[in-house]
């Protein structure tokens, strides 16, 4: 396309009209200069260089418009690589809040197998969500309501769960190694018990789960706080 614009026709003049001409004799092409600049540099030196703030999809459309086919595979690979990188990135607090807002209260919200590592989900109402196989490593969930969630085989290692609500939670074979569970509440007035069967018991997690889950423990009307010294033998 770009070559045809300035190719001479059989009857003189250009094969295609490249565009208007300004007072200095420069041809004006009605295309985006932002996306055309990388193409122009590619035509000059044969190497594709994209600034981080330039969308490769815009450059791809320009390359296709001008018929520069040698650029298309390179741009497609860049686009696919960026998409793969985004897929591997953990969801943020904003992503979770958006999902909560958009999901009807009658529908099930599923984060099964989702990467949420390192996210700050403190003080959110996350009741009844499916977190099965989810990666919650290093998450900050201080005061978060996780009641009745499905957290089977979820990775909660080194998560900050201080003061979180775990009423009726199902955490079969969940990994809680190094997690901070200070002041967590597992007591349900209705009598529904949390299922912690098969959980990771290493280091801090060798606390008295059985007592926390199956017995009402209170001290001056506050949940009993268990320290690492409160351990049971395997």
Automatic annotation (TrEMBL):
InterPro entries: 5peptide_repeat, Pentapeptide-BTB/POZ_domain, SKP1/BTB/POZ_sf, T1-type_BTB. Residues 21-71 form the Potassium channel tetramerisation-type BTB domain. Pfam families: BTB_2 (PF02214), Pentapeptide (PF00805). One of its GO terms (biological process) is protein homooligomerization. It comes from the Eukaryota. This is BTB/POZ domain-containing protein KCTD9-like. It comes from Diaphorina citri. The gene is LOC103519566.
